[in-house]
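Memo to structure team: turn this sequence into structure tokens by end of day. - J.P.
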Amino acid sequence: MRVLLINPSWDGLVSGHGRRYNRAWPPLDLLNCAGLLEEDGHRVELIDARASWLSPQALGQKAQSFDRVFITSSPIDRWQCPNLDFQPFLDTVGCLPPDRTHILGAHGTLLPETVLRQTRARCVVLGEPERTVQELCRAESLAEVSGIAFLEEGVLRRTVAREPLDVNRLPVPAYHLADLNRYSYELLGRRFVLLEGSRGCPWSCHFCLLEMYGRCYRKREPGLVLRDLETAVEKHGARSGYFIDLEFTVHRALVEELCAFLIRKRYDFRWTCQTRLDTVEPEMLEKMKKAGCGLIHYGVESGSPRVLESINKRITLNRIREGMEMTRKAGIETACFFMFGFPGETDRDRRQTIEVARQLNPTYASFHMAAPYPGTHLHRLQEEEAGLPFSECFRQVGTSQELRQVTRRALKQFYLRPGYILDRLVHGNPSSWYRQARLFWNFLR
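Reply from structure team:
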């Protein structure tokens, strides 16, 4: 069987609605799917229109020669924060053969009936896609496949929910289907890959969208992660990577074995991860630095203790400051994330957030509007109406002009400090200055 996997392009470098940065990163979940399908003997092709733009019409023509077509509305790096404007996706799906097209991603998982009616696709895959995609290429009928939804005589039908994926049974991602020359991370480097050591999150912050992960936390065996890394570096020439785990340093065994492996191998490989500031410690950070970790992403969210408590972040500002100081002493750069617009948030809370960002002084800071995605506790707290048209469920997120002004003000007050600019000129990488300035300008627009 010939199978086509598609990661479609979106609406520019930074989406006008919701201010999502549309990076071209390897769609790891699709590469996992490809690995499983190739094990079954299928002929698989991946088109990543984010990395190499292809018009919806050209994609549609290409898809005509395939037996199965799978297109994602949110690859794994967007499972938590899917794009808010769905129209670019609809434009692409509208050019594909509906009887062979299957929808993956957060949008269809959250609102399957609306997505099916808008796309006329054969079915939507609910949640993590790998095993379901494999079964859709094995089964004779949709009714045989767990974890999907489809329309039968105009009525929505859901099959039996799929059990969470055994992440230790994933194959080596099909990196050979991705041209690594087309992937980079402006804060890290080129020939960029995504890797995964765990799936899900052991915490339950109110703003976090976890529907794609199945709401359970699973660790991969460190040896399997090292296998994937070794393949990416030695066979495919990867030079930088992102461990896309929601909370990387919670998996202590992986951190230990990964660092020992990279120190021993002495690869020309720089990497990053995301984690919490209360799960790092000095010895761990020193090993990570020695093993090539150049950047850590931390979710701070708010500088207001009251707001942190209200969103169930379960961390204190003192612990945040301690974690940042440890990371700074280890010589690792930091990217911190902050959000505005939580329920009950006041102007004072927002000023506190901007001030804490300046005090923490990470290498990079990102400021966004909180998105009450359907399926999150934040959505329920804000009492969004159930059953709204699909476009409204997402379009209403991030439409506050007041919050857009707050995020712009935060960006300016953080990045336009003379001390910050001087520090970046002295210690920053000249090759990244243009990219950082371009990104800053796009977020201000």
